[in-house]
């Protein structure tokens, strides 16, 4: 079939639709001009490459020649990759939520040629079912309304555009920082915690790493054992569940059930980056080896399966893959007509017994495998008696049941996992979205840097530095201090939004504290200054897009909550506070405080939706410590002092290392570092507040005592 206008795009999602009979256009003036010229409404369909229901609608409707002909006749059809253009998605998702009270992907929105929405929804089936109109009938009805009731459509579009404008330009709130917000948010988490299965709320359950980030910081601040328990139990239960890949490491998108047992199988870079940080920080806070293991396995999964040769990190792996029985029959993977959700990850008991021989019973018991399949949350029978692996029983229980010593059982299970992982590698793999996004790479750089610190793994630090070097060389124009959002196949495109600047700056800051390479601290400062200049509001907070840069956008929006990703305003506020400590610059702290005050009413009213902004508030409400190690990079004494710092969960601090090679450059940022020198020729630690340092020490026990003292709260 002749390709449509998407054939020359780089987005994997758009390319999935390039051979549809629908005459798809990418978002841009060519499509807009066609709609104006032909006086047709626009159908914008928004999704992403690993979206299961996007695949379903592509297979059912967009590949159907009859439906496609109807679309081509009456509409100008535009496909948008929401991961490349979250700004477009945010506007029209807000519109659909205002119209219907719900949202999701695929997002299908009907616009006037002036790009104003007048109707929309999510997935539409090819015929009416589940309370949804059939897509062909909907297309017919809207085309009739466009021809015969244009005035009503224009009126509805005008009203909705006005409502969107009011939403986007609502007067900024302002409320002074208050530690009571943290306490109120914690109470909300206590109230919504699932005491039986952990996590918050009911099914479906999303990992929501920002929740654990807040709870761990609230524990560090208050000493609350309950806050630590909520975070630790949620992480432990997720790691035991099917939402975690028990063979290959890494987390799936979410759990369809309340027990974390049956996942929606796609794997997203942003989830795994943030969850790796959660597990690293939980390990620092508890010293539980299980948290260290899951952190390592998650980071190793990304390095193994999600890393480009150039060092950047790919975006996602699909939920769907070709079922093994079809692959063996020679069925080719074309489009998604034969793809099955989770086929790569599911096992029958018979497959496991054939593969593992004498160790099969031990493995089957440990991972909850049953002859009829264990997918309790599979109401449509899609998994056909297959099993999602989850840790149904502990290693100790499994070993005891089969009369083995614990160490022997553990070794047998490890060998079984290795064997099955190798066997699984021969199955048709899920689709890979191999675009590199700046923002998500920033999150992964943070994860690797923190993993390198807490777990003592040099290879994680090397991978983080390689990724940062790649971003800086391929996606950043240093002369004009401009960051691009997407890279694929040697080509960068799409101007960076606020998330890109904020998340990459955070990654660079974390990489500096792990490597002490000053170029990363300097780059973080550059990116943050540009974020303030390009996206900052005078009242505080950061718009997604730059002012007057894209005339196709109906309005300029600001993300007002922390969700599966934290908002650019939350990450930006914390970056500003950290950089204010690294530089002593008052303007940076004031920019952070404006943002915190703007979001103050939201933090006070619905703290669980502001989890990462509350992390920034926690930092602002404390007196951060500056921990400076004066010593050479290769000296054993320096390593011993750093190990003490990195082994602790201390979120309200900055960490520097100074020696003769970098003292002059660092002193340009913080003049007091001129006098921070080793004592007695030995690497020495300085623990400071407001750049006033306690007596320096190179005695490890004394340093431990200094670190264990709590930082003061601001008055």
Report the portion of residues in β strands: 5-15%
Give average pLDDT, whole number. Answer: 93
Secondary-structure-based class equals alpha+beta
Largest sheet: 5 strands, mixed
What is the 3D shape?
Answer: globular
Total domain count:
4
Q: How many strands in all?
A: 20
Estimate the helix proportion, in percent: 40-55%
pLDDT under 50 segments (min length 5)? 323-338
How many distinct helices?
28
List keywords for this structure.
715 residues; single chain; four-stranded antiparallel beta sheet; Glutaredoxin; Glycosyltransferase; 4 domains; alpha+beta
In short:
The chain is an alpha+beta fold and 715 residues long. Helix content is 49%, strand content 10%.
Structure description:
The protein is α+β, with helices and mostly antiparallel strands. It has four domains: 12-168, Glutaredoxin; 203-433, no CATH class; 434-621, Glycosyltransferase (Alpha/alpha barrel), CATH 1.50.10.20; 622-715, Glutaredoxin (3-Layer(aba) Sandwich). Helices cover 49% and strands 10% of the residues. The protein contains 28 helices and 20 strands. The strands form six sheets. It has a five-stranded mixed beta sheet with strand order 1-3-2-4-5, with helices on both faces. Strands 13, 14, 15 and 16 form a four-stranded antiparallel beta sheet that branches. Strands 18-17-19-20 form a four-stranded mixed beta sheet, with helices on both faces. Strand 15 and strand 16 (491-495) form a beta hairpin. The protein is globular. The N and C termini lie far apart (69 Å).
